[in-house]
């Protein structure tokens, strides 16, 4: 799994260097080659770098299995290992490719790639923490959050690959098919992004203007979730102290991202965006704390309030029934 994370990222840094370096970008785009052809040739080079060692290792295993190690190395497990690794690198490299063209900086590529993979588990963890804190009667054993976490390919690989011994069971899982389809979509979407991308954005952290807002708000939200898990849930701090610490750290993350993207320390004029982030966090927490908890607690409160009234009604109906029974008996006697 570690190699599946590291190798595609390193290969993306190598083959897509022309979108991160101004000198390489000017040289590559000055040649009489279309961007589509350049993109496809880069993908072929990347797959060659990643797949050639896998296939070569598989051939060595096959040769060993046909000679002295025939009792311990089988043909089917070797082919299974090759197919599984080819699919995993194909899926992981699609995210690295998208990250490479969303930024013009190599360090930002690594950060964005890691953030994309970590985002589903972070979202699932945040929902579980918030619901466990504010939602009365919430059970943390819900399978819904585990399914959200498995949207991330590394999490899915860890949860499924080590329980499979051959490619038959690996490809029998429908999730791998959806991951492959999503990877193809990402490759096609990246080709479109590359066509509309400006060469002048080489070296910029955000290759597109909308990516600036996405990055700074996403990083600030991750910082807030981490603060919530450590200071409020872990250390048991009070809500007021936690909010103060979280507000300060989110401000540091927000303005830090602004400084990195704008390459300037004078970013204090962007305070309105930070206030907007605080307002968004307040709305989300208020929705979880007041709306969902109101829906969950209101029916039990109504039942508790109506319980004495229902008891009185039951006693009255019982007395009325007894009186009617006596009346009916008296009529029978007469």
Helical proportion?
over 70%
Distance between the termini: 92 Å
Structural class: mainly alpha
How many DSSP E strands? 0
- Tally of alpha and pi helices: 12
> Largest sheet, if any?
none
Features:
334 residues; flat; 12 helices; mainly alpha
Please characterize this protein's 3D structure.
This protein has 334 residues and is mainly α. Helix content is 80%, strand content 0%.
Give me the secondary-structure topology:
Blueprint: H1 2-15, H2 22-29, H3 35-66, H4 75-102, H5 106-134, H6 143-149, H7 153-160, H8 167-172, H9 174-196, H10 209-234, H11 239-262, H12 271-333
Helix pairs in contact: 1-3, 1-4, 3-4, 4-5, 4-9, 5-6, 5-10, 10-11
How do you describe this structure in short?
The protein has 334 residues and is mainly α. The protein has 12 helices and no strands. It is flat and about 90 Å long.
């Amino acid at each position: 799994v570690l190699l599946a994370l590291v190798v595609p990222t390193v290969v993306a840094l190598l083959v897509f260097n022309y979108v991160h370096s101004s000198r390489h970008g000017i040289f590559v785009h000055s040649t009489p080659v279309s961007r589509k052809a350049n993109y496809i040739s880069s993908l072929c080079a990347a797959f060659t770098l990643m797949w050639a060692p896998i296939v070569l290792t598989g051939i060595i295993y096959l040769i060993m299995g046909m000679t002295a190690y025939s009792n311990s190395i089988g043909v089917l497990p070797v082919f299974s290992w090759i197919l599984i690794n080819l699919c995993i690198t194909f899926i992981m490299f699609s995210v690295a490719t998208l990250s490479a063209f969303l930024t013009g900086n190599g360090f930002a590529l690594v950060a964005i790639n890691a953030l994309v993979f970590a985002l589903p588990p972070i979202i699932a963890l945040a929902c579980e923490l918030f619901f466990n804190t504010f939602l009365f009667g919430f059970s943390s054993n819900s399978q819904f959050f585990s399914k959200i976490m498995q949207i991330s390919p590394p999490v899915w690989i860890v949860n499924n690959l080590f329980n499979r011994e051959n490619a038959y069971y690996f490809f029998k899982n429908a999730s791998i098919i959806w991951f492959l389809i999503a990877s193809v979509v990402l490759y096609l979407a990246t080709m479109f992004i590359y066509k509309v991308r400006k060469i002048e954005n080489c070296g910029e952290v955000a290759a597109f203007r909308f990516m600036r807002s996405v990055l700074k708000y996403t990083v600030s939200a991750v910082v807030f979730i981490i603060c919530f898990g450590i200071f409020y849930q872990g250390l048991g701090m009070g809500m007021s102290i936690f909010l103060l610490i979280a507000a300060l750290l989110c401000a540091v993350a927000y303005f830090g991202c602004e400084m990195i993207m704008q390459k300037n320390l004078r970013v204090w004029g962007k305070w309105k965006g930070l206030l907007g982030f605080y307002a968004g966090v307040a709305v989300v927490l208020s929705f979880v704390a007041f709306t969902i908890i109101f829906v969950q607690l209101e029916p039990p409160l109504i039942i508790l309030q109506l319980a004495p009234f229902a008891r009185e009604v039951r006693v009255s109906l019982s007395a009325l029934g007894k009186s009617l029974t006596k009346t009916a008996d008296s009529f029978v006697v007469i």
